[in-house]
Amino acid sequence: MNIHEYQGKAILKSFGVRVQEGIVADTVDQAVEAAKKMKEDFGSDWVVVKAQIHAGGRGKGGGVKVAKNLDDLREKAGAILGMQLVTPQTGPEGKLVSKVLIAQDVYYPGESETKEYYISVLLDRAKGRNIIMYSTEGGMDIEEVAHSTPELIFKEEIDPKVGLQAFQARKIAFNLGVSGDAFKDMVKFITALYKAYDATDSSQFEINPVLKTSDNKILAVDAKVNIDDNALYRHPDYAALRDTAEEDPTEVEASKSNLNYVKLDGNVGCMVNGAGLAMATMDIIKIAGGEPANFLDVGGTANAQTVKAGFNIILQDPNVKAILINIFGGIVRCDRVAQGVIDAYNEIGNIPVPIIVRLQGTNAEEGKALIDNSGLKVYSAILLKEAADRVKEVLAL
To answer: Binding of ATP: at which residues (predicted)?
Structure first.
């Protein structure tokens, strides 16, 4: 589950990580009041207006602006609120900005120069360990740094038996080139950051940039946080941070029916039980000359209600020209699945695209017979090749 920058910073702060302070606003008037409060707290007219969407690259897309006074703030907050912000991570359609963060100006003058770093904590699935990835070249062009000069990206593996060790935090601070008070503060920052990541059951904490201020303080200027969905039952307070307006509406609808759904760009809708079978189904669709329109795993309970919910979600995509249902009857019996398909079809009414149902496993023959005798516009199959041939046939119609 992704959360907004201001929410991620609040979590970081609760674990002792120093952050760029800010106040979230939904309107221009709220943004002005937030800027006045920031001046009271920090004594500067300058603030940063930051669009709050679930995507990186906001600065390059025009979603991050520095305002030097209240009139300037009103103009820039008004321009960002309501804009369709397009970044490299949103795709060409962009995302609607409905709130902004009015953030503290942390690039103030002082005795030493400011410096931006990149630090993230994430899971290396291949090694089964958390890693801290970091670089001296933080900022907007970190993707280009990783591509062109990968030697500037460092990684520190964390042994899950003992967690982050003090010498590792010092090693990271040393490699980042900080010294004196900044070195001590960086060690504290890294230690607190890893604690926050571990305690929240997150899959990613990305801070870009981490800033060394002109008075040698280390703080998080941004926060991209992804909390593991499977652990949200342990963190109901974090689950409440979910912003469904930032997610695909069909994926939100699918989650309400306990369906695992991901929208794709193809023309054949998929409804399958089991992630591995779903991947194989998408492969067979491509072999047959089609393109999968989605990943949809109904799990072990493919009954009339789940099938109906799956139909309703898939049919929202106007690009879908056929639907392939591929069920292995292990936990669930194929005849029950077949009856569920028939009941769902009758309840929905006229489904405008052909449906191929491939059943294999317990009572597969009985399930096929139910489909064949239903009188509905549904094609049955038992072998995967049969299903692929049916897909090819209906796409050619």
So the answer is: 50, 57-59, 106, 116
Query: Which tokens hold the place of 71?
Result: 């009139």
- Binding site feature residues for Mg(2+): 208, 222
What the block records as the tokens of 176 is 């980042």
Active site residue 108: no
pLDDT tens per residue, range 265-289: 899 999 988 888 889 899 989 988 8
Claim to verify: residue 15 and residue 25 sit in the same structural domain = no
**Domain check: are 208 and 356 in the same one?**
no
Residues 3 and 88 in one domain: no
Known binding-site residue numbers for substrate: 273, 330-332
Catalytic, out of 6, 118, 194, 345: 118
Q: What is the pLDDT of residues 57-84, one digit of tens each?
A: 898 889 999 999 999 999 999 999 999 9
In terms of DSSP bridges, do strands 129-135 and 95-96 run parallel, antiparallel, or are they unpaired? unpaired
Which residues constitute the domain of residue 55? 21-105
Say if CB 221 and CB 106 are below 8 A apart. yes
Q: What pLDDT digit, counting tens, does each position of 15-55 carry?
A: 999 999 999 999 999 999 999 999 999 999 999 999 999 98
**Is 206 noted as a catalytic residue in this protein?**
yes
Bridge partners, 379 (sequence order): 356
